[in-house]
Amino acid sequence: MDDHAEENTVEIHGDEEIIEVIDLNDTEPEPEDLADDLDNVDFEEAELEDDEGWETEDEMEAEAEQDDSELTFSKHTGSVFCVSLDPVTNSLAVTGGEDDKAYVWRVSDGEVLLECSGHKDSVTCAMFSHDSSLVASGDMSGLIKVWRVETKEEVWSFEVGDLEWLDWHPAAPVLMAGTNDGSVWMWKVPAGDCKTFQSPACQATCGRILPDGKRAAVGYEDGTVRVWDLKHGNAIHVVKGQDGHQGALTCLACNKDGSLLLTGSVDGSAKLISSSTGKVVGTFSVEGGKATGSRDEEESNSVEAVGFCSILPLIAVAFLDGTLAIFDLSTHVLRHKCLHQAGIVHLQWEESSSVVSTCSLDGALRLWDARSGGLLSEYRGHGAEILDFTVNREASLAVTASGDNRAKVFCLQRPDR
Q1: Pairing of β 163-168 and β 174-179
Q2: Which range of residues forms the domain containing residue 236?
Q3: C or N: which end of the chain has fewer Cβ atoms within 10 Å?
C-alpha cells in the first residue's frame, strides 16, 4: 500500500470518530422526525468525508476485474507452471501445467498448434530448441518428451528421476536435464545418444548450458555449484565451503559470454562466480534476512531469481520478501531496492535496455527502470499468483503463466518506445 493510500484510510479508534449519539426509541420514527434529523446534516461535508479512503462496491469490483492483457489462453485446466517463447520468431509460446499437458500456441490469436499429451504428472518444464524446430516438455515424475513443431509429432522421449529442470543447447539439438537424485543427463535429440555427469547424491536444483556450448553450470541442494565440461564429462570447478552457498541453490544465470555466473540460494545471498577460475568474486544480500510471513523464525530471505543486465554493469537479485535489489557489478554497491507487495517469483532483463521485469505472488507483472529504481508500469489481469513469464526480444510483449489456470499476453507500452 502506498503512502497516499495510507493517508486516505479512515481508522476508527474507540469513540474518536463518533460525531453524534442518537438514542433509538422503542417506536419507529415518523417521517417528519427523520426529516427534522436530516435538516441538521451538512451534506457537502458528509460527501467529502465518505469519499476519502473508501471505495464503492462498483469500484472494488472494477479493480478486481482489471485485465490489462491483450489475450488470455485458457486451455489448461490446472495451474500453469511454465512458459517460453520460440527463439526464432517469438511468435509461438509453449506452456506447461498441472493438467499434465503442454500446449504450443500462437501468441497473436491463442490458436493451439500442438497439444503435448501423454505426461503422467504436472508439466513443469517446457521450452523450444535453439532453432524453434523442436519443443521439449518435462513433467515432475521425470517423463521428458520432445516434439517436432512443424509435423506435430513426438520424436523422442525418455524417463529419468523426479525432474528439476531442462535446458537446450544454444546451437545444437542437445537437451540437458537435472533430477532430484542429483543426476545430470544430456542427450542428442532425436538420436538419443546419452551422457550422464556423476554428481553427489543431492538434488540438482538448477542448471544451464553456458553460451559457449562447451560447459554447463549446475547448482545443488547442498549449496555446491559445479561447472561441467560437456565433452569430457568432468567437473572443471566445484564451488563450495566458506566462500560458497550455505543452503540449496534456487536459481542460476550467466552473462552474455558466459564468463560470469550469478547464483541464488535459500541462504539469502547471491554469489558472483568466475566460470573460468571457479572463484567467488562477489556476494550480494539485503538487510532483513527473514521471509515475510515466515512461520519459521530461522527461515532466511531466499533468493528466488537473478539476472545480468546486457547493456550496463548491473545485476538484479529478487528475494522472497518482495525486494528486487539492483547492484552495481563493478563496485558491488546496492543501487536500488524496488519493493513489491509479495514475494518475487521470476525476473527478466530486456535484451537492449536497462529495464527489468518481475512477476510476483500478488499476480502482477511489473517493469522497473534499473537506472533510477523507479516503477515504469504494472500489469494485472490474473486471479492468482504469476508463476512464470517471458518477454520477447523487442520487449513489446510479455507472456505470463499463473495459478489461475491461465496464460496471458500483455502488450508492454512505454513512452520511450
Answers
A1: antiparallel
A2: 72-411
A3: N
Give the Cα separation of 361 and 348 in Å (integer).
Answer: 16
Number of domains in the chain: 2
Q: How many CA atoms lie within 13 A of 140 on its CB side?
A: 9
Q: What is the pLDDT of residues 303-358, one digit of tens each?
A: 999 999 999 999 999 999 999 999 999 999 999 999 999 999 999 999 999 999 99
- 200 Cβ contact list (under 8 Å, min separation 6): 182, 220, 222, 224
How far is the C-alpha of 145 from the C-alpha of 136, rounded, in Å?
A: 6
Q: What is the pLDDT of residue 296?
A: 46
Instruction: Give the residue from 64, 92, 108 where a domain finishes.
Output: 64
What does the alpha-carbon distance between residue 375 and residue 208 come to, in Å, rounded to a whole number? Answer: 30
Q: What is the pLDDT of residues 260-303, one digit of tens each?
A: 999 999 999 999 999 999 999 999 999 754 444 444 444 679 99
pLDDT digits (tens, 9 = 90+) for 132-186: 999 999 999 999 999 999 999 999 999 999 999 999 999 999 999 999 999 999 9
Contacts of 215 (CB under 8 A, 6+ apart): 209, 227, 228, 229, 230, 236, 258, 275
- Helices vs. strands in the chain: H and E counts, helices first: 4, 32
Using CB atoms within 10 Å of the CB of residue 266, give its burial: 0 to 12 exposed, 13 to 18 middle, 19+ buried: buried
Residues 225 and 270 in one domain: yes
Mean pLDDT of 7-23: 44
